[in-house]
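Newbie here. two chains, one complex. Structure please?
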Amino acid sequence: DAKTTQPNSMESNEEEPVHLPCNHSTISGTDYIHWYRQLPSQGPEYVIHGLTSNVNNRMASLAIAEDRKSSTLILHRATLRDAAVYYCILKASYDKVIFGPGTSLSVIP
Amino acid sequence: DTGVSQDPRHKITKRGQNVTFRCDPISEHNRLYWYRQTLGQGPEFLTYFQNEAQLEKSRLLSDRFSAERPKGSFSTLEIQRTEQGDSAMYLCASSLGELNTEAFFGQGTRLTVV
């Protein structure tokens, strides 16, 4: 499985944008970039995914580098509810989700 | 539909006992996954089913672990002769199994082996 590298932890102030980076230099042409997050005492939940182009949905935006070796999950306005572990995952089309350690995001009121 | 449901939410058992967990996926989802998560770690893949067929098992799934999905609906995960190292959160997820559809996770069963 192709690997991703994320910072162990990040902090953000409430109501400010958050940029969560992910490096995936060994990504293959068929790997999609998925993001999941896990709130305390909850199961993981899907956030967003993309292949080459930037993606937006109601939860977040995903910015993918032109060479696809890195990506950034953008939360436009962090709330306390966004405090969670964020997982950046490379996933072939029909494959299972494989989690790394993720980034623990703290949101400061 | 209330999403993926897992039962029980918590289980405390003595070492050496057998335990069984149940997962009810979202009704139209044909893929079902089991994961294990220990404190401070990301979930680790254990096994998955496409309908009733168990298509992949991780090497983490020792002989003491068995999973079934009769009739391609709910699934059970049984751990025989539990050990303290089995203490973890066991997560179930389901998906449509189509191109890049998201996986929906349950809230997990927390197992404590004493």
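Moderator note: Strands of chain A lie at 9-13, 18-23, 32-38, 45-50, 55-56, 61-64, 70-75, 84-91, 103-108. Chain A has no helices and nine strands. Thread marked as resolved.
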